[in-house]
């Protein structure tokens, strides 16, 4: 292999390692973000339950107030019935008493349903609070994990960057500039082998004459298709 290309292959190996660690570091918050989204969803569910509980508790108070007022009215009507003088008054008053009793029975039934729902909502809110507490614990633990792994990766990236700087010193400035340009444009891969007449990076065939030139290892050539720096991959025949 051309000596300069050999150095670039080493450099590319370092760059790909740096790229890998940077990608891993960038992906670290994914689980944290997922837990955070779940937490926000659970908090929204809890708030919705609390709103419903507040609403139904208000309804309970209203019904109890209505029941008390109507019960007072019922008592007055029942006292009044003994003093009526005509059948018409008696019938009207008895009808009123029956309607009050019927309405109060409906209120009692509704209160029972409401009390059951209040108990159910309180249990749901309690359970949701436990889930929220657990999610917050998971977030805290995940944040710690991210910080520890991030620091570990930063250390590895710093060491690789130091190696990269040292290897870069062995490359001509113009060739290094060309390498960096191609690397940035081609997903981190600027140097590719050619095997059986095809570029291993883009899988396109190269002209036979160019391949023959590559075998001489005298100059540095680029792939006509992807513009990467290329070298002939020689296979030992035993």
* Uncertain residue ranges: none
Give the strand tally.
4
Number of helices: 5
CATH class of the largest domain: Mainly Alpha
Q: What is the domain tally?
A: 2
Strand content: 5-15%
- Residue-averaged pLDDT: 93
User: Major sheet, described briefly?
Assistant: 4 strands, mixed
Structural class: mainly alpha
In CATH terms, what is the fold-level topology of the largest domain? Helix Hairpins
Order of helices and strands: HHHHEEHEE
State the end-to-end CA separation.
Answer: 20 Å
Spatially, the strands of the biggest sheet line up as 2-1-4-3
CATH architecture of the largest domain: Orthogonal Bundle
Layout of strands and helices, then pairs:
Blueprint: H1 3-27, H2 29-80, H3 87-168, H4 173-185, E1 191-195, E2 198-199, H5 208-216, E3 221-222, E4 229-232
Parallel strand pairs: 1-4
Antiparallel strand pairs: 1-2, 3-4
Helix pairs in contact: 1-3, 2-3
Account of the 3D structure:
By secondary structure, the chain is mainly alpha-helical. The chain folds into two domains: 3-168, Helix Hairpins, CATH 1.10.287.1490; 173-232, no CATH class. Helix content is 76%, strand content 5%. The chain contains five helices and four strands. It has helices spanning 3-27, 29-80, 87-168, 173-185, 208-216, and strands spanning 191-195, 198-199, 221-222, 229-232. It has a four-stranded mixed β-sheet with strand order 2-1-4-3. A hairpin with a 2-residue loop joins strand 1 and strand 2. Helix 1 (3-27) packs antiparallel against helix 3 (87-168). The longest helix is centred in the middle third of the chain and has 82 residues, at 87-168. The two termini are 20 Å apart. The mean pLDDT is 93.
């Amino acid at each position: 292999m051309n000596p300069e290309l050999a150095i670039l292959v080493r450099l590319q190996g370092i760059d790909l390692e740096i790229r890998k660690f940077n990608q891993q570091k960038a992906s670290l918050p994914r689980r944290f973000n997922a837990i955070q989204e779940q937490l926000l969803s659970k908090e929204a569910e809890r708030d919705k339950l609390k709103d419903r509980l507040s609403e139904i508790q208000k309804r309970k108070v209203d019904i109890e107030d209505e029941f008390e007022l109507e019960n007072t009215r019922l008592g007055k009507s029942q006292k009044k019935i003994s003093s009526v003088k005509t059948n018409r008054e008696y019938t009207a008053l008895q009808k009123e008493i029956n309607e009050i009793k019927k309405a109060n029975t409906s209120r009692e039934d509704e209160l029972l349903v409401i009390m059951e729902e209040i108990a159910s909502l309180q249990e749901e809110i309690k359970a949701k609070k436990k889930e929220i507490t657990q999610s917050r614990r998971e977030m805290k633990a995940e944040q710690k994990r991210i910080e520890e792994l991030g620091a570990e990766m930063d250390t590895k990236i710093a060491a690789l960057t130091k190696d990269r700087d040292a290897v870069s010193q062995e490359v001509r400035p113009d060739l290094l500039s060309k390498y960096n340009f191609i690397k940035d444009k081609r997903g981190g891969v600027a140097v590719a082998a050619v095997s059986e007449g095809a570029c291993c990076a883009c899988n396109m065939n190269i002209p036979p004459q160019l391949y023959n030139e590559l075998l001489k290892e005298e100059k540095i050539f680029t792939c006509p298709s992807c513009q990467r720096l290329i070298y002939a991959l020689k296979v030992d025949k035993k």
